[in-house]
Amino acid sequence: MTAVTARVPAKVNLQLSVGPPRADGYHDLVTVFHAVSLFDEVTVAPAERDTVVVTGEGDGSVPLDGSNLALRAVTALVDTLGPGCRDAPGVSIEIKKRIPVAAGLAGGSADAAAALAACNELWGAGLSPQELRDVASQVGSDVAFALLGGTAIGLGRGDQVTPALATGTYHWVLAFAAAELSTAAVYAACDRLRASRGGRPGKPGEARRPARPGQVEPPQLDTALMTALRSGDPAELGPLLTNDLQPAALSLLPDLRRGLTAGREHGALGAVVSGSGPTCAFLARDARHARDLAVALAGAGVCRTVATVVGPAPGATIIGVAAEKS
Ligand code: ATP
Fold first, then answer.
1. For a substitution probing ligand 1, which of 29, 69, 116, 273 has the most ligand atoms within 8 Å of its CB?
2. How sure is the predictor about 201, in pLDDT bands with cuts at 50, 70 and 90?
3. Which of 82, 85, 120, 135 is least surrounded, with the fewest CB atoms within 10 Å of its CB?
4. What tens digit of pLDDT does each residue of 143-165 get?
5. Which residue numbers are catalytic?
6. What is the pLDDT of residue 24?
7. What is the number of other CB atoms lying within 10 angstroms of the CB of residue 141?
8. How many whole angstroms from 139 Cα to the centroid of ligand 1?
9. Ligand 1 center to residue 73 CA distance, Å?
10. What is the distance between the alpha carbons of residues 181 and 174, in angstroms, rounded to a whole number?
């Protein structure tokens, strides 16, 4: 085999509930991931040394050294399989990006998942989906979900994933911001907001507030959201979208509020910041409504650009295998 290509989706979070900071600095999460049809493609091939090339959306802000998440995933896979797993000293990784960088859509994690799936195939390693997810957890919180795709519940740091019972196809508009948001900065802002506010949990989308000052309630799966997902009815799902990180993202980029308001005014069934932001996700009634909503949001000048996508989308999938010429 000379090259393997995997396609991998972006995600939005239908629920993102954040617990208090843990001793290791991470936060325990209860999240419902939903993969959407905005895909990066990652091609891996044997090479003399490890290299990364990135083209497409946001390519200038993606690192090409050992900190690139796709390369980190390859290194973690080699550590798991042992150095004899590959028949060349290195691997070339070519990433075609359509998922914006640092946008709350887990694009870097997606590339890591695609690299794991592609190298598993390239090297004939034969790791099972669960074994690959175990490697994924070492690389980042969202990587296991990018392998799985669909709609799934994420626990722990988000890396313990289980498929959710969900029916139907959901039509979304994603509004991309001009700015990037660092995930670490948004979590830090969330902790600061909670420490300063105190009191009970707020309305959906407001920061989860401590029951007593300094104490944050453990996150819980929203059973109403799970019921809505089983119904397949976007009108049921829309009002139940929540994100504990939204107030923090809005505190760092207050202009995002204008986009959320504009989406609701144009009939979005739900409007929420995706993950740590700044991308905002708007749930539409159907494909036609999604197109109208996208045009309205683009026209309102509240974002850099928009995309219409559907979910759930499949996780990292091998889409090309180039065989060696004999
Ligand atoms: P999160 O998974 O925390 O929600 P995000 O979706 O907000 O992340 P990413 O696009 O994953 O953001 O990028 C986060 C950071 O990771 C970027 O600032 C970038 O420097 C770094 N990074 C490393 N590898 C990659 C990659 N392959 N693609 C994009 N970003 C990468």
1. 69
2. very low
3. 82
4. 999 999 999 999 999 999 999 99
5. 11, 142
6. 87
7. 21
8. 12
9. 13
10. 16
